[in-house]
From TrEMBL:
Lineage of the species this protein comes from: Eukaryota, Viridiplantae, Streptophyta, Embryophyta, Tracheophyta
PANTHER family given in the database record: GLUCOSE-6-PHOSPHATE ISOMERASE (PTHR11469)
Alphabetical list of NCBIfam families matching this protein: PRK00179.1
Subunit structure: Homodimer.
Protein name: Glucose-6-phosphate isomerase
Entry's Gene Ontology cellular component terms: cytosol
Keyword vocabulary terms for this entry: Cytoplasm, Gluconeogenesis, Glycolysis, Isomerase
Source organism (scientific name): Musa balbisiana (Banana)
A GO term, aspect molecular function: carbohydrate derivative binding
Amino acid sequence: MDAVRFDPIRLQPGHLSRPRSHERWRCEYTESTSYPERGSCVLVEETVMASTALICDTEPWKDLKEHINVIEKTHLRDLMNDVDRCQSMMVEFDGIILDYSRQRAHLDTMEKLFKLAEAADLRKKIDSMYNGEHINSTENRSVLHIALRAPRDKVICSDGKNVVPDVWDVLDKIKDFSDRVRSGSWVGATGKALKDVVAIGIGGSFLGPLFVHTALQTDPEAADCANGRQLRFLANVDPVDVARNLKGLNPETTLVVVVSKTFTTAETMLNARTMREWISTTLGAQAVAKHMVAVSTNLTLVEKFGIDPANAFAFWDWVGGRYSVCSAVGVLPLSLQYGFPIVEKFLKGASNIDNHFYSTSFERNLPVLLGLLSVWNVTFLGYPARAILPYAQALEKFAPHIQQVSMESNGKGVSIDGVPLPYEAGEIDFGEPGTNGQHSFYQLIHQGRVIPCDFIGSIKSQQPIYLKGEVVSNHDELMSNFFAQPDALAYGKSPEQLLHENVPDHLIPHKTFSGNRPSLSLLLPSLDAYNVGQLLAIYEHRIAVEGFIWGINSFDQWGVELGKVLATQVRKQLHLSRTEGGPVQGFNFSTTTLLTKYLEVEPGNPSDSNELPRL
Ligand code: F6P
């Protein structure tokens, strides 16, 4: 084994070169001897017996590469005329309709993609996931979020142990606790019922629960159950997020849920200490036991923090942060807000898709079809982004959640065996609910870049409005756009059509729409807790399918580490300069200059007494 030491703040381009296929590199953080106040990264090169087999070396891959030429000669305008093709590209499962006829694909393309799935051992990889094998090989862990929503009698094993009873022990504990809080039998330190919940967490310990909460807020059944209660999320370490979340809250009636898989995430822990201070300043230190609970895999650190282990809700290392919304991470705050029965419906929806994904042939399997089409768009057709466009305000936070699930999972540059990928993997996800997005970035997707779009709609509105005298209901108005936009993208508008409409010559280039822009439509029956669970699981599994085809590890996230290490160096410098007035040292010119300016304008030490937001 050979080790190369480098200063992370003075990285030279040469240090970042990709490993050769027989090498693996590991970044280790160690204390620095030259700068005792700072550490350094050691890039350790290990020679390993990595498999160099890549999916791009298989025949189905090469076949698809050649097939691009065929597809490039087609236009969606013509493909959409083939009714048999369109019929074959419409799949229905449990009331959910997927229409992928507006993808730049023939039936032949699909056959070739199924062959690619075979070459990538997709079936075997799905089975390995469901069998609890350690498919997250760099962290040596199983990937079993499916167990979080499995029925009580299901057997799902990790390391030879059925994990489903443990899952249900925690679910039962959540049900009991949330029932007590909601009924007022668990009260705060001054005897008042706890009506408001602040869930502290970031990334996977925040985005999924926020998405589900936002989706349920206007579901009539869920909304009824949440009457008089508030659920807020504190994620950002920016003190402004604390100020905004505390506004209007009374510590006497507030329960804080600290959510962190590791219980070490800097942002979450500082926010947790801030909230602990907020409670104990007003109610006394003993109140913390009544007003703070935790969700974590690290129960030792929970106890060290001062939260009673009896009020800690466990999950397990076989649940990835971004796949944890169905664990206590999401189930506890959501049950406190909506009651356990609503959350159980959500879990049942996700479980329904888990079964569908596991047992349905690839030709009719929603996550598999979606995953294969994403690979086709990203890697073969060269469209790196995907727009997630729910025509449902309730799904406002769906795209931000999927951004993490997708980009943290598949934003990788090497295969699962550590071999640099000679093709692009991962995709750039972004989105906004329709119709808001139409008035924001749709110009670009109609006439600028080609961005494959996911249109998501629901047949029934959560909150229908009908106005006498209006042509259509408000939901129909919304859905008119859901149905129109995919055709506008696919068909476009030709110069001939514009001429026919007497458009002046000089405007024709500006008013021409090239069309041939791919999209798919997902139509859900409604947006109740069950459907929301289904939608979540469809995307989780779709993203896994993409990773399985690309041959990467979709379940680790080493890419988030380096920035955290560098922030540690800066934090130490800020502390030193603020407490001892020491000069900024050991950083490059740019960082030194900015840090010096920052310290000049905001001088002084952290105050001896606590300062909390004044809003
Ligand atoms: O952003 C990196 C990450 O590790 C995510 O994967 C995770 O969801 C998030 O931080 C929060 O981590 P934790 O739940 O351990 O606080």
